Fold:
Amino acid sequence: MKEERPDLRTRIGTLQYEAMKRVAMDWPPSVAKPVFRAYGYLTWRLIPSLRAVVASNLARVIGRPADSELVQEATREAFTLYARYWYDMFRLRVMTEDEVKRRFVLEGLSNIDAALADGHGAILALPHLGNWDAAGHYLAVNGYRLCAVAERLPNERVFELFLHHREALGMKIVPLDSAARAGPQLVQLLADNWLVALVADRDLTGRGVDVEMFGAPRKLPAGPALLSLTSGAPLLNCPVYTTDAGWHCRIGPPLQSERTGDMRSDVTALTTVLAAEFERDIAAKPTDWHMFQPAWEDQPAARSAAAVPLPS
Structure:
């Protein structure tokens, strides 16, 4: 049977991914960094529909009109930090362990150690802030067993490249094909005292938990709370921020909510607590929130910034 050729968008996305990786990993930082900054600027400048989505998200967070000078400047900075995310994500592969440890500042590691001492693993929930790949790599080079869940991308080839990249950074990857398939794997990993990282500020199913963030309703995925309640593993909030020198991550204590015995109610309550944490995390540095899709239902969609989508 003749193998089907990938469509044009798939081929462009794959070439774009490979080119970005080569520039970040093989070129000197003095050259590669400006290239990625230019990529961020051109994306901001040339795709007004995407710029409008990011401005709309930031307007909700900042509490100012999307066309205000403050929000417009924040939007431009968000694209700059988005490009920095891409550069750092690829560059991590060729950094020495000493460089990673020097540039990554981690607070609250004792909360992870305490969870592992209890023997049930831990669920590390985080929003699309800073660089979650850097956090996973840092934990891996320090000897922690970490699994990350990866959203399956429309471009299967790019998805496979992302998986290979993150595995090279020391993380185990479970593709999010469906909750029925991924859930049992994650429960078993937690039973084996692994860390499970979930980027959890965007619901991909439309069946998430209704919460309020920045004064408006939106949905968050039920997975982190459900996994915590069914496995007994603590749920820890772990925002990551970009800094001039590298990254800063804060590991919070286990999140708590009142138990009722009704699983649906308990999942909703714990997810609501997580939403409040995410709200504070994002408000601390709105421009570092890589939310390039409408975060609330009343926002218009935009065409993608590139053929390569943002991984989670």
